[in-house]
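Let us practice reading a record.
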Amino acid sequence: MFTQKELLYLIDKAMKGGIVEVSDFGDAVLQPEKQTRFIRQAQLKTKVLPQSRYVQMTSHIHDIDRISFPGRVLKSGSDGDNVHRNLETTEFAKPSTAINKLTAKEFVAIVSLRDSALRRNIEKENFEDTLIDMLGAAAGKDLEEFAFFANTDILHSNDDVLSKTDGWVKSAANAIYGVGGSKDFDPTADTYPENMFDTMLTATPKEYLNDPNDFRYWVDWNTMDAYLNLLKKRYTNLGDDIYRGALPPYKGIPVEYVPLFARSTLTGGGAGRVCVLGYPENHAWGVFHKIAIEREREAKKRRTDFVLTIEADAGFEDENACTVAYIEKENPES
């Protein structure tokens, strides 16, 4: 049995073994290899973050540049008589450029471990990895929720995390709605959710759909369940595959269930139930390179508090390549 003094010494020893590197300002900053482990664990416990483009932010603001050629770029190298000609400057291909930004927002989490739990982990000599895995897995779920559902229309008093910025759902350029007199699809129809999937495809600019297999339909549990039930009714090989647990794509686009969608709500400006049609590489998220885990000992309570500080943001390379279906929300412009 460790005394409190011995326990504190072992915690310090474990942390100095790799968790932190103390800067001149006294911050407990994860070393690069441990930060990589933290991010990997955050991705492991989420559905969409591992597929999306992760950005290692070396500053609090990171530019996401995009360049495209929306029209024809080729010109004839000869005139009507097949004689070589030089292109005029007015004939040069003109790219379309734009810049989106990731701006790191600070978030804090505090985890308390009783001495008994610390003893068990320290004795196994993997305390630092256990702590990083535990914090990374928990933070990853929150970061995926933040990436999708952050919305500046939400009051800070209602949600101090999601109110910080506009996430992928709010920032998507294309939206359809399942409620109201001018609704775009009917979530109560016998053809749901295929009617919704079709409407989302219609709303998505076709220049982005060169390879449908690169896109994803990200759905909540109820939509996934409705899709499974719809397919099971078809007495075909497709229906048989469903009974065996295989979920086919819709028109070449994989359909994926995202557990974190269960957290979405209409309360306080939230999105409610949604389906997102997106291209994972177009969905960017980043973490500022200084992740801190600091220890604070509560000796009288026989516990140690670990304070995680992380700065992160999420955004698009091109918001025009994403379409959101608001299943239980009316078009605000109708």
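A brief commentary: The chain has eight helices and 14 strands.
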